[in-house]
Amino acid sequence: MFFAQPMLMLKRGFIYGLIGLIMEVMWTGFCSLVEGDLSLRAHTSLLMLPIYGLAVFLEPMFYALQSLKLSVPIRGLCYAVMIFACEYISGKILTAAGICPWQYSGPFSVEGLIRLDYLPLWAGAGLFFEQIHLRLFPDEGLLFVSEERIRG
């Protein structure tokens, strides 16, 4: 696979990154409320912008899973697995650099980098990004093309 339109990919990645930051702020604000903080104090890290922007690489999955006519729960599960992989790998890299903005704990935490109990949340996020893509970019085409399409 090759990138068909790198500038378009960067634009979409930036949009996905901003949406991810907003989602994280809303989630941490909600968690503050649940913990009794009526100020709804929320937080994130700007390091998350490119990490959430990686959702651009889910776009081929959006088309593939839709074309297979997979059910919503199965598509969500597929997205959650990919998001876990991205979160784990990016967490490993950021931890090695000493700048990882998250450290999970608890029985469902894997090395402090992912939380398996977040699977439904990540499935929902993947489905949300799928719908964002289908609604915001329906006519912009694929960012990725196969080598066969390039050769004609």
Describe the structure.
By secondary structure, the chain is mainly alpha-helical. It has one domain. 61% of the residues lie in helices and 5% in strands. The protein has helices spanning 6-34, 48-53, 59-67, 72-96, 119-136, 147-151; strands at 2-3, 109-110, 114-115, 144-145. The strands form 2 sheets. The protein has a two-stranded antiparallel sheet with strand order 1-4. It has a two-stranded antiparallel sheet with strand order 2-3.
Lateral strand order in the biggest sheet: 1-4
Q: Approximately how much helix is present in the residues?
A: 55-70%
Q: Which overall shape is indicated by the principal axes computed on the Cα atoms?
A: globular
- Give the end-to-end Cα distance, rounded to a whole number of Å: 14 Å
What percentage of amino acids are in beta strands? Answer: 5-15%
Structural class from helices and strands?
A: mainly alpha
* Number of DSSP strand runs: 4
Largest sheet: 2 strands, antiparallel
Please tell me how large the radius of gyration is: 17 Å
- Number of helical stretches of at least 4 residues: 6
Q: What is the count of structural domains?
A: 1
SSE order, one letter for each helix or strand? EHHHHEEHEH
pLDDT averaged residue by residue:
87
Uncertain segments are 144-152
